[in-house]
Design goal:
Length: 289
């Protein structure tokens, strides 16, 4: 028991303090926003250019939150790496500005009427160190975080916590022969010192183990909301062209997901498909104790 607790404490510290890796050079996102501000484009343009990014960040943070509905008891836990891959819909590659179609951040990196091109990045994935630890009274804590670099976006720092509450003991099993739970989480994401985003999610989860093999099927329905703030005055070398903080919401709302989880001894592999404002694929590799 003591060794398990020590191991868990070390892993939790890793999740909360992991510094990852990255580059200090200006990325495409910061460079393009800097150019837009220098050309006199103000709040409406910045919002239109980065709106899909807010929704994408929310989709990433709301994904791969669980791979089973039942909760564990203390000191049992799962620890490993989870990740989400997202593709941006074609209609989010452009937006209308002054009657013309111009690229969003995810749009084409060729010439644009506005003079500001996109990044050409239409899909990407983000990993996170992920920990689930059983508590008491059907409660389970989730914590995860990471620092990851995408050349087009820059150094991305993520940190989040959540709580899952098991419902199986409250519902007669003959009526619902599956495990059920509810889960709430809040996660934050930052790019440099000038962009921050937060996502709140609430899910209802269900899972069912198969008798003849070590597989679980899981599914869920949830609601997520995302907000993002761009501190234009903090963008590198912007000088007097900054226009203060610009805040807006992502288009995130309802999400459905369906997945499969395989466990053998202390190893778990899982993957799921998410249907939402932007579709995504989530998954992870866990050590389960």
């Amino acid at each position: 028991m003591k060794k398990k607790l020590q191991f868990l404490a070390v892993l939790l510290i890793m999740i909360l303090s992991y510094s990852g890796y990255g580059q200090n050079t200006q990325n495409k996102l910061e460079a393009h926003l800097s150019e837009a501000l220098r050309q006199g484009y103000a709040e409406n343009y910045i919002k239109g250019y980065t709106q899909p990014l807010a929704t994408a960040f929310g989709t990433i943070m709301g994904g791969a939150l669980y791979h089973r509905a039942y909760t564990k008891s203390f000191p049992r836990f799962d620890v490993g790496i989870s990740g989400v891959y997202i593709t941006v819909p074609d209609q989010e590659l452009e937006f209308i500005f002054n009657g013309d179609k111009v690229p969003t951040f995810f749009g084409t990196n060729s010439e644009s009427i506005s003079g500001i091109v996109g990044s050409g990045l239409e899909g990407y994935w983000l990993p996170q160190l992920h920990l689930n630890v059983g508590l008491f009274a059907n409660l389970e804590l989730m914590a995860r975080g990471f620092k990851y670099n995408i050349a087009e976006i820059g150094d991305i720092r993520m940190l989040g916590f959540g709580v899952k509450y098991g419902l199986s003991d409250l519902i007669p099993i003959p009526m619902f022969p599956v495990d059920l739970s509810v889960q709430g989480s809040y996660q934050t994401l930052a790019v440099g010192d000038w962009l921050s985003a937060g996502t709140f999610t609430m899910n209802i989860n269900a899972s069912k183990g198969l008798i003849i093999m070590p597989l679980d099927l899981y599914a869920g329905v949830g609601f997520e909301t995302t907000s993002m703030t761009i501190g234009t005055n903090e963008i590198s070398n912007i000088g007097q062209f900054g226009v203060g903080d610009i805040s807006f919401d992502g288009d995130n709302n309802l999400r459905l997901n369906f997945g499969i989880s395989w466990t053998l001894f202390i190893l778990n592999l899982h993957a799921d498909y998410n249907i939402g404002e932007y579709n995504s694929v989530g998954g992870g590799v866990m050590v389960v104790l």
